[in-house]
Amino acid sequence: VRTGYGKNAVRVLFIRRHGRHHYIVELKANVEITLNSRKDYLSGDNSDIIPTDTIKNTVHALAKIKGVKTIEQFSLDICHHFLTSFSHVLKAKVYIEEAPWRRLEKV
Length: 107
Description:
Blueprint: E1 5-18, E2 21-35, H1 39-42, H2 52-66, H3 71-85, E3 89-99
Antiparallel strand pairs: 1-2, 2-3
Pfam families: Uricase
InterPro entries: Uricase (IPR002042)
Family: Belongs to the uricase family.
């Protein structure tokens, strides 16, 4: 029985500044959490469930607090947070895509 759950398509938009040039970066994160127990499935006890809105808000908060140097590092930051903040989390998987934005140049 696969017991993971999470939040898909968490969008994060931020500005990366390089001198006079500013670049918009758009990310889309999928976060999947697997818990140590299966009591939510076996007995209907949801006391260990981390709400999906909490997962979404955590992604946004980590982007604000830690910043996004690379999508790989940001993925590790998200996984590390859930694995260290919640003792009942067995596994955390994060998949992030970066959508390209192009600068509009003066004609």
